[in-house]
Amino acid sequence: MPVAQDIEGRPEIIRLVDHFYQRIRTDDLLGFIFNDLAAVNWDAHLPKMYDFWQTVLFRDGGYKGDPIAAHAKLLAKTDLGKEQFDRWLTLFEESVDALFQGPNADHIKRCAHDMANVINARINKIPDPRFDPANLTPEQKARYAAYKAGAGDSAS
Ligand code: HEM
What we know:
Elements: H1 10-25, H2 31-37, H3 42-58, H4 67-72, H5 82-99, H6 103-123, H7 138-154
Helix pairs in contact: 1-3, 1-5, 5-6
The structure holds protoporphyrin IX containing FE.
């Protein structure tokens, strides 16, 4: 079986993004958010997402925007929480795996995962579990305690 290629630049990003949004548009949980609630202009959204992922992966896509605000706006119209972000991620990862394989393919999936968590946490005001003191190791707890003690001193 031929080994799938990795994501090497913009041409692969375009293939990935196009494939992913084909899936999204017909998805029973997410399709209507894009098609009906946001009435997305695909001619504008797809190139913006090429830029976005090129910026994330290769730092040269020139994306400028505010992903948090774009999604926070949707909350007024529909549920946008763990169930929706999990589905988004499943479709994204399936799209990557269907087309690509390699370090950049792995990296883009990790980035998508991290950003889905951040966007979900920010718009729904969920505390980031990585910074919940209950989840810290004893060593991290000690460092955090020292930081807090030190922060009080250095503020004066
Ligand atoms: C359930 C999950 C999600 C839904 C329903 C959703 C939906 C949308 C919609 C409707 C827009 C606005 C499109 C437009 O009107 O042009 C948008 C923009 C965008 N989304 Fe998502 N999205 C989701 C998750 C994500 C995730 C996880 C990421 C990042 C990894 C992401 C990245 C972006 C970016 C970069 C924009 C453009 C923001 C801007 O205007 O600069 N989305 N999304």
